[in-house]
Design brief:
With about 375 residues, this protein is an alpha+beta fold. It contains 11 helices and 10 strands. It has a 10-stranded mixed β-sheet with strand order 7-8-6-5-4-3-2-1-10-9. Strand 7 and strand 8 form a beta hairpin. Helix 1 crosses helix 2, helix 2 packs across helix 4 and helix 3 crosses helix 4. The longest helix is centred in the last third of the chain and has 24 residues.
Length: about 375
């Protein structure tokens, strides 16, 4: 009854011939129009969901209107056309469990960054299909792993962009890291990481072990964080912050669920520092070990790892100013890395080479 009363009051205000009334009319008409697109199934449950979508949108009418206006940009319409649920993003937990009404600030900053940084074609590829390919790792054993940027609907609470490590032959995701670009208090921009997800598959462990060997002991999950650091640097952003176990979006009382990943340990291993708001600030560049502190038997492995990362970082830095990430050149880089065949785990290594579309890459590695 309270919700119905609210709708009646708002509708009455909308009928007034004023600027506020006209804005209310616009928001109401859009909410009513979008509701069945966000909840397209038929049945009583969906009718109730549509009603809640309209009422919740009216409760935050000004923010709802701004969010719809952002998505109505010509280059962003593909976002809600491909993923209608994005229209209800203000009505659900996002990024971390304490963001609250600041969701619109984070979304405004993130999509403003995308519109300034990426072409229309690149943005379309983010929201449609697997996402644009940033880097391809081709191994002589027959495996090809790609780094892609994509919008992943079932991960949208953790961030609006996902850096994905994908098995290109089987089109299966090995790992992904969810993030968005948010404004800072000093007027800058920084990456905020909301989650990391692993691929559940019977032979996932074998692939992870093989890929770790190929990258000289650098685990895929840590490698993704390094690549995200590279991207952050090349985009000219002011560093990275990341969610903690305690502040993860799925710790929100509305969406509480078990979280398998141990974010705190990963960030601490990467040199992250816990701040007063219980989030982590991560190093702008990966922290490298002093050679003198490395066991003699592992010095060669670390040297090759750092050479591989330096080469990748150099390509990314040299080409990050490309005018259009979609049409930027793809560069081939030979490395001294070795990869064992995914199965069995004991397979000998083979030379790997990295093919990088560096126009959109950005370095930071550990």
């Amino acid at each position: 009854m309270a919700s119905l009363f609210l709708v009646m009051l708002v509708t009455r205000a909308a009928n007034e011939n004023s600027v506020i009334g006209m804005r209310l009319k616009s928001v109401i008409s859009k909410l009513v129009y979008f509701a069945p697109k966000v909840h397209p199934e038929h049945g009583l449950g969906e009718v109730m969901a549509c009603a809640k979508f309209v009422v919740r949108g009216l409760v935050n009418c000004r923010r709802t209107g701004e969010w719809f206006q952002i998505l109505d940009s010509p280059n962003l319409r593909v976002a809600f056309e491909s993923h209608p649920h994005i229209l209800s993003k203000l009505q659900r937990p996002y990024l971390h469990r304490k963001l609250g009404k600041r969701r619109i600030e984070a979304l405004r900053g993130h999509y403003g960054f995308m519109l300034r940084r990426f072409s229309a074609e690149f943005i379309r590829d983010v929201f449609v299909g697997k996402g644009p390919l940033l880097t391809l790792l081709e191994f002589e054993g027959g495996r090809r792993y790609g780094l892609r940027l994509a919008y992943v609907e079932h991960l949208e609470k953790e961030g609006d962009l996902n850096l994905v490590l994908m098995d290109e032959d089987q089109e299966k995701v090995l790992f992904s890291i969810s993030f968005c670009v948010v404004p800072t208090a000093d007027g800058g921009e920084q990456v905020f990481v909301g989650g990391i997800q692993g691929w559940r598959d019977p032979d996932a462990k074998a692939r992870i072990v093989a890929l770790t060997r190929a990258m000289h002991g650098l685990r895929p999950k840590a490698f993704l964080l390094v690549v995200l650091q590279f991207l952050t640097t090349a985009w000219g952003l002011n560093g990275l912050r990341a969610v903690s176990n305690e502040m993860h979006v799925f710790r929100h009382f509305h969406k509480r669920r078990h979280i398998n990943a141990d974010y705190d340990t990963l960030w601490e291993d990467s040199g992250g520092v816990r701040d007063g708001d219980r989030m982590f600030t991560l190093p702008a560049m990966p922290i490298r070990r002093d050679p003198a502190s490395i066991d003699r038997s592992k010095r060669s492995m670390y040297r090759k790892r750092y050479e591989f990362l330096d080469e990748l970082f150099g390509l990314i830095s040299a080409n990050a100013i490309a005018a259009n990430p979609v049409t930027a050149p793809i560069l081939a880089v030979s490395t001294k890395g070795k990869i064992g065949k995914p199965t069995p785990l004991e397979g000998d290594g083979e030379e790997a080479r990295t093919i990088a579309n560096v126009a959109t890459a950005h370095p930071r590695d550990a």
